[in-house]
Design a protein that fits this description.
Blueprint lengths: L7 H19 L6 H37 L5 H21 L4 H33 L5 H17 L1 H6 L2 H37 L16
């Protein structure tokens, strides 16, 4: 396997970039050279993210065109997606994001589609919860009880039956849920720090597509 095939250049760039960012953030060295390098790397992150967005849009266009031309399953929905993608591109590039055309598309199509997607996702979450939440022991009983109280406090109709549902739900959100969420966020951040350190020192190479034991 060649040197370029092993992606060691990409791994070296990744390691050096991570070291520069950490050192420039935690250490105030004379000359401010590392700070300038870190600022330049931040600019390149924005540039590469924009290029990735451009390539992603091109890939989406190519995929939709192939699906429509081959009349694959769901090709009519791809036509709708392709039309709205072109409309958003024209409104954003030609008229600008502060124009009436851009706002009209966002207010009447994007927000409506996003609300529909969230509603459908919530429906499946509740249906999954109904199938999975079975009382088998004391822990599951407590979980089911809290879930029912949260739903009763969220639905406005139950607030008309008993206004106390809303107060109970608020207490559970501010005390029980907030404490559990902070513990979850702390553990997630610790795991993210460990993963970042593994990437920086070169132990985690899957970020650049170099998976140990997998030959290309």
């Amino acid at each position: 396997m060649s040197f370029l095939k092993q992606k060691e250049i990409a791994l070296g760039i990744l390691v050096l970039s991570g070291v520069f960012m950490i050192v420039s953030y935690y250490f105030d060295l004379p000359g401010k050279q590392l700070s300038r390098v870190a600022s330049e790397l931040t600019v390149w992150v924005v540039i590469l993210s924009s290029l990735a967005l451009l390539f992603g849009g091109f890939s989406l266009l190519r995929r939709n065109y192939r699906t429509i031309s081959l009349r694959q399953k769901g090709w009519t929905y791809d036509i709708i997606g392709l039309v709205f993608l072109i409309m958003f591109l024209i409104a954003g590039l030609y008229y600008g994001q502060s124009s009436y055309q851009w706002g009209f598309l966002f207010d009447n199509f994007y927000y409506a589609a996003r609300s529909t997607m969230y509603s459908a996702g919530t429906f499946y979450i509740y249906s999954t919860w109904y199938r999975a939440m079975r009382v088998r022991n004391l822990d599951s009983l407590i979980m089911v009880a809290f879930a029912i109280i949260m739903m009763l406090g969220t639905a406005p109709i139950f607030g008309l039956v008993y206004p106390g549902f809303g107060d109970i739900k608020t207490y559970l959100m501010n005390v029980g849920q907030l404490g559990a969420m902070r513990g979850f966020q702390m553990s997630t951040n610790i795991g993210l720090c460990v993963l970042s350190l593994r990437i920086i020192v070169g132990m985690e190479t899957s970020a650049i597509g170099l998976i140990p034991g997998v030959e290309e």
